Amino acid sequence: MLLTMKKLGLTALLATLLVAAVTVVAITTGGPDGKDARRDARSATDAKTSPSPRPSPSTDNSPSTAAGPAIPYVVLKPGECFDHPRLDRSVRKVTARSCGVPHDGQVISNRTLTGDFGSDAALRRKAMELCEADAKKQLKSLSGDGRFYYFYALYPTRLTYDYQNQDEISCALTLSDKRGGPKLSAPLNVPPLP
């Protein structure tokens, strides 16, 4: 009986070690299907080997949200750097910055919205779609820098779009999708988009 209990104890120990090893593998790879759970969750960290754009749930630049006060509509030129209230608590509006000092993002392109949008969410989806396409193009030139980028959109609300005919969006790259995240510290070396 003592021998059987020792075998059971050894079996339990081996089973515990096996579960621990499987847990470590699952955490490292992101799950049993091999997908990186962090990538699916759109987290701020990712493999550092190849930069890739990720939309952020915090990129809703609507002037009035439950999350905070109004953010005025602004269009920046490609190459301009900025801080944004949704990425930096120290600013209350989108603020242009020198690209040589720490900043939240850099504009990579401007695009024009067209069409009818039934909601701010529909307009946001279109803006993000346009910016994602530009971000993918620009990231090819940044593929060797080892950093993870998010694409970001500065766009009008639906009311501003509908009634003030403000239809231009500014697409940007950032290193974070939330307040207090990492900042860029130099201009991005990206070619101008047509």
Give a structural overview.
With 194 residues, the protein is α+β, with helices and mostly antiparallel strands. It folds into 2 domains: 2-38; 56-174, no CATH class. It is built from 4 helices and 5 strands; from the N terminus they run ααβββαβαβ. It has helices spanning 2-29, 37-40, 120-139, 158-164, and strands at residues 81-83, 95-97, 105-112, 150-154, 168-174. Strands 2-1-3-5-4 form a 5-stranded antiparallel beta sheet, with helices on one face. Residues 1-50 and 55-67 have low confidence and may be disordered.
Structural class of the helices, strands and pairings? alpha+beta
Q: Calculate the terminal CA-CA distance, rounded to whole Å.
A: 80 Å
Mean pLDDT: 74
Rg (CA only): 22 Å
Proportion of residues in extended strands:
5-15%
Specify the overall morphology.
Answer: globular
Keywords: Signal
Signal peptide: 1-26
Protein name: Septum formation-related domain-containing protein
Biased composition (Low complexity): 46-65
Features:
Septum formation-related domain-containing protein; 30% helix; disordered N terminus; 194 residues; alpha+beta; signal; 4 helices
Write the layout of secondary structure elements.
Blueprint: H1 2-29, H2 37-40, E1 81-83, E2 95-97, E3 105-112, H3 120-139, E4 150-154, H4 158-164, E5 168-174
Antiparallel strand pairs: 1-2, 1-3, 3-5, 4-5
Biased composition (Basic and acidic residues): 33-45
Signal peptide: 1-26
Keywords: Signal
Brief overview:
Residues 46-65 have a biased composition (Low complexity). This protein has helices at 2-29, 37-40, 120-139, 158-164, and strands at 81-83, 95-97, 105-112, 150-154, 168-174. The chain is of the alpha+beta class and 194 residues long.
